[in-house]
Amino acid sequence: MIPSIEWLEEEKKVKMIDQTILPHELKFLEFGDYRDVANSITVMNIRGAPAIGAAAAMGMALATIEYKELPKDKFLEKMDEAADYMKAARPTASNLFWAVNRIMKIVKNSSGTPPEISEEVIEEAQLVAQEDVNVNKSLGKHGAKILDDGDTVLTHCNAGSLATVQYGTALAPVRAAIEQGKNISVIADETRPRLQGARLTAYECQYDNIPVNVIADNSAGLLMRLGKIDKVIVGTDRVSSDAVFNKIGTYHVALAAKDNDIPFYVACPTSTLSLEDTVDDVEIEQRDPSEVGRILGKVQAVPEGVKCLNYAFDITPFRLVTGIITEDGIFTPEEMLKKYKQ
Amino acid sequence: MIPSIEWLEEEKKVKMIDQTILPHELKFLEFGDYRDVANSITVMNIRGAPAIGAAAAMGMALATIEYKELPKDKFLEKMDEAADYMKAARPTASNLFWAVNRIMKIVKNSSGTPPEISEEVIEEAQLVAQEDVNVNKSLGKHGAKILDDGDTVLTHCNAGSLATVQYGTALAPVRAAIEQGKNISVIADETRPRLQGARLTAYECQYDNIPVNVIADNSAGLLMRLGKIDKVIVGTDRVSSDAVFNKIGTYHVALAAKDNDIPFYVACPTSTLSLEDTVDDVEIEQRDPSEVGRILGKVQAVPEGVKCLNYAFDITPFRLVTGIITEDGIFTPEEMLKKYKQ
After folding, report:
1. How big is chain A by its Cα radius of gyration, in Å?
2. Which domains does chain A have, with CATH numbers?
3. Closest-CA residue to A121 (of A136, A135, A100)
4. Chain B residues close to A219, C-beta within 8 Å
5. ipTM value of the model?
6. Interface list for A 194-223 with B (CB within 8 A)
7. B53-110: per-residue pLDDT in tens?
8. Strand pairing partners for B246?
């Protein structure tokens, strides 16, 4: 397991895997400017809700370094600008807002000088990353309880180590169960249009010796019918008070799981909860249609001149969700609301 | 609308569009050997149940030409071999069996000499093709009744003109409704792994000025939720007494349609009915896994060494089907069984 993102203390830089070129090449990017970190979130060098949260926090740390020689009022003004800039990088990712707000709370509440605040923020950003690893390990330990020896787990998109700082959310229970000595294998939905399952989930499973098969998204339902899938675990970008927002296609998987009596779990660190929202509050991001028409930017599938629609996220209502796995345990949606909704 | 397949009477050859290279190039193939026609079905130069039926019949006509100088007993023996060879080209396509059996009935029942039988078979093969066009037009006329002015129709895979000799099955109601002056637009599922929707449905809609948008298969459910799809019409490779067999992913579409109260129709010429079968009689064809891992043979999506599963067809139970459109009318699955099942 390689960390997807790291803070380089000596260089004062953010180091991340460039996930757009996986699985063919393992290349690292280093950024010293928070705008470049925001851009890396937009173009998906880094993706996955928790990894985006860590990247945003580290990006904000870079902003404090850039502005720490300014007078405090000017510093605060510039940090506000940086926060807005960072939040605009990926509108659906609630962890992005969560992380930026967490950093801005320190910036605003600290009585220190800008250089002192910068030190505090750098520490906090690293804490965000470390907490993510701890949370995922705890989530994995709880989630492993639902997995029996010999199970095959279907997952959609990539909510593995690469989607987090390390260890993963949807793949955390798989990793934990394997650490406990259970035989678990994974079926990865390829996850069109950007193929995060085919590229990233397959890559990290292979890297860590977790048995994995890749399928076209279309075949999940048939495989359930044929008895080849025991459990579904997916990650999430946001959980509102009534639905799970996750990669486009998640709703189809949930419907098929329900129709075949297969448990459908959502791995969700509590930082991804957004329970003050309802389904009507969230606008579904539309991405560049060429992601559909020109596959991986390389193969033109659609005739020239034909338009594509490219909605990036899916809405899965709670009635299709068996359980939500957090760092605190496993909950039905109702139990989860009771526990976490103020 | 270009015919996907034709009998060239003068050359005694079968002419077809090479659908594997659409939408980038419109190229025609010509075959004088029935084995090449069988191979063209296997490698999907031609595809779609009705087009495969016509190709198989024309291929059998080529076989009669090859063997017509043999003594009759030897001729019959060779024709049996050709029939077996042709049927092995694509195991899930019931029209393949239907067409070969139709030709073999003439071969076996005719009192003529082999050259006379060959003439009869050539005529019958052309009749199979002409009947397909007539059947589709009739199917379209019935199907157009379910379409209202302004409707957007989702279809999966390609069951258009290219899947038939001409006019299409799932797209026949769309064509007929447009001929009646209704504004109808199409949303085409791209249909991984072979992208028949992105390549072929998009191509023929564009060619015939039918408004079309392409989507990743994963987004059908969300678009239904957002109110952007009014009706679903798909084709089928086989209808048993309890389920519809069609391209992988059809089951997901049907589940999403049901969950969103959107009518789900299957366009099915009666030649595609296989009502003596049940779901347990049909083995689902598994195709080359590289169709998933290496997209259109060009882009390696999956890391080297990771295996893919590639089931080609899906099982959609009747409970998810609103209606079955044949050349005789529109029927619920129960009505269809009553009408056609002996």
Report:
1. 20
2. 5-137 (1.20.120.420), 140-340 (3.40.50.10470)
3. A100
4. 248-249, 309-311, 314
5. 0.92
6. 195, 198-199, 202-203, 205-206, 212-223
7. 999 999 999 999 999 999 999 999 999 999 999 999 997 778 899 999 999 999 999 9
8. B314
